[in-house]
Amino acid sequence: MTGQGHSASGSSAWSTVFRHVRYENLVAGVSGGVLSNLALHPLDLVKIRFAVSDGLELRPKYNGILHCLTTIWKLDGLRGLYQGVTPNVWGAGLSWGLYFFLDLFLGYLEHHTVPFSLWRMNC
């Protein structure tokens, strides 16, 4: 058996598996993770501001969610509401993209090529 014959059989096995892979799922997961994070990041920032508000005079005091949002808006503008958004967007996009991609991919492998489930073993 030559190296070419072995390569061809290996590539046909992978092409059979990857034939059912939909990259649209990866794109959908990434875009959903990014957009949801961009929409909800100001509320996450408010949550963090409340968590670190320990009553010291150095930190501003907030009376509620709207007061916190308007104070941040008045002091720092739109940039203030989206402080620290970059790592969150990368993390959410990557995690949701891989989740959508691998969940369907591993689900296909589980039902079509593996005699028993290595991913979801029921003991």
Automatic annotation (TrEMBL):
<feature type="repeat" description="Solcar">
    <location>
        <begin position="20"/>
        <end position="109"/>
    </location>
</feature>
<keyword id="KW-0812">Transmembrane</keyword>
<protein>
    <submittedName>
        <fullName>Solute carrier family 25 member 32</fullName>
    </submittedName>
</protein>
<dbReference type="GO" id="GO:0055085">
    <property type="term" value="P:transmembrane transport"/>
</dbReference>
<dbReference type="InterPro" id="IPR018108">
    <property type="entry name" value="MCP_transmembrane"/>
</dbReference>
<dbReference type="GO" id="GO:0006862">
    <property type="term" value="P:nucleotide transport"/>
</dbReference>
<keyword id="KW-0813">Transport</keyword>
<dbReference type="InterPro" id="IPR044712">
    <property type="entry name" value="SLC25A32-like"/>
</dbReference>
<dbReference type="InterPro" id="IPR023395">
    <property type="entry name" value="MCP_dom_sf"/>
</dbReference>
<keyword id="KW-1133">Transmembrane helix</keyword>
<keyword id="KW-0677">Repeat</keyword>
<keyword id="KW-0472">Membrane</keyword>
<dbReference type="Pfam" id="PF00153">
    <property type="entry name" value="Mito_carr"/>
</dbReference>
<comment type="similarity">
    <text>Belongs to the mitochondrial carrier (TC 2.A.29) family.</text>
</comment>
<dbReference type="GO" id="GO:0016020">
    <property type="term" value="C:membrane"/>
</dbReference>
